[in-house]
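Re: [help] complex structure
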Amino acid sequence: MSRALLYDATMCIGCKQCESACAQQNQLPYDDKVAAEPVQSEHKYTVVLAKSDKFMRRLCMHCEHPACASACPVGAFHKTKEGPVVYDVWKCIGCRYCMVACAFAQPKYEWHSLNPRVRKCIMCPERVLAGKQTACAEICPTGATRFGEREDLIKEAQERIRQNPSTYLPRIYGLHEVGGTSVLILSSVNVEEFGYPSSATIGDTPMPEYTARVMSKIPDFVPVWALVLGGIYWISHRREEVAAAEAEEKNGSTQ
Amino acid sequence: MKFKLSFWRVVFLVIMSIGLYSAFIRYFHGLGAVTNMTDQFPWGLWIGFDCLCGVMLAAGGFCVTGAVYLFNIERLHSIVRPAVLTAFLGYCLFIVGLLFDLGRPWYIWHQLIYMNLHSVMFEVGVCVMAYTTVLFFEFLPNVLERFNLKAPIQWIKNAYAVLVVLGILLSTLHQSSLGSLYLIVPSKLHPFWYTPALPFLFFGSAIAVGLAMTIFESTLSAKAFGRHLELPVLVELGGALLVALWVNGLLRFEDYFHRGMLGQIIKPSYEAYFLWLELMLAFVIPITMLSFKRVRLSPDGLYLASVLSLLGFITNRLNVSLTGFETYVGHHYIPKWTEFSVTLMIVASGFALFALAVKHLPIFPGQSQAEELRLRTETRPLVAAAALGHARD
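Output below.
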């Protein structure tokens, strides 16, 4: 069973304790200045955004079928069976195709480093493996960010919508988007207002499928195309041989 | 002549020194100091031009070797060597460009040991490495001839058909895969440029550009090295270019028609202006020009049509990689001057290395005996020696 996070925006009070816990967990600097930054960056994996009295958290969605993992030429990203999409810095060559590929624009880059790494929320994999919650879920004072089995969290989210239909929009963002994600979002306003891509734009098809459709044809294409090319070579040169042989025959008969 | 040569040398040195200064900043202060790339725009000019356009502009190698060795079109034999040289240089410079753009270029060899078979980037990387090796062997006879090493030349000659087929196979794969790279961003890339047909369009444009580039480089080297221009060969290439442009143009039309985009592409918008520019340069103007027999038979007409279509396809690739993301990101990306300077340095090195190779290696077919003698006795002993070397084989 895979773990997930459920973020209920209606319960969030914007205290940003998840931000600071995340920074601490990942050994990143965190002070008032960082807290005031309203964007994710190489030193801020998660951010709590505010719009009038509404809050919204952003973090890596930990897709069930992550585009970054499929795009990476050296397989530096992979989806663990526990849920987190993790990054192996040793493998990374810095091509940044993961950043291009991610529909949620989550991977960030250390642009000013001489040996730059891709940075994003990795869902505290050591903690998850040890059976603990993620740092952000553990510290959340209101339970707006909850950690658990994905199936259980989906049921709980559906239950909350059923009990408070006037509070919530009737959808769980991340349930089906790009084939499902391990971060699920409940809210009273459209998540799109806070920069999330709209469900209609990204669709329910896992992003890796768009390239897999082409990549899967290559093993068949290579031998067929090689045969065609070899065939063209054979025919075009055979024609020459035949012409030469015919010319010789003609010469022979006239002599 | 003498002044002109030194003028271009000065230009070259200026470009190289500015480029090297930028290279210094890039490797000692990081990508952030030298580029305008951001988390929103992780790929900039170096991917858009140096890589996507560089590989496309080097496509002449597989087009010409394919025509001559695969389809046995003997008439084009004289342009094989310059086309292979251009391709080999193009791929080498592409790799140089990549070493600038990769965040951790010192780990580029990871590509060979950590293989993600699902990744389009992996496929491109491996095919480019393999094809550069193939091009190295296709190019090697030039060097061997220079030193009169007959045995290895014979080995390569025996295997040349295999090299050519392998080269076309690898080119088909990675030229199209450069387009496939963008299949994973349906929600980010503007619908003018995002289409499931991307791999086909990239492969098709590589062939058109391969032909246009061969015309461009033949004309330019004829002018620069005072060579006799082989008009019949250029005319033949021009005819092929016209067909290739029609096929590419129809593919584009078919794609927009099929996706119901025709109404949108004629409406003025930021993206539409760039699209119109691309379509005018790549298709409308050169196709119109080449439709006139007078243009198709004139060296200047062929040259101009090729240059315009090259600019058109370059615009296309920059649109796919840069313009097409601007609406999604919400702001413009304009490369920093240091990005331009590195790109310019790479392009200038390409021209310089081409000239150097032509000077020292038997790239162009031997001139007539009289011309050879004149050259030998006059200013260019090396070219004459090279020409003689080629005449021997």
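Chain A is about 40% helix and 15% strand.
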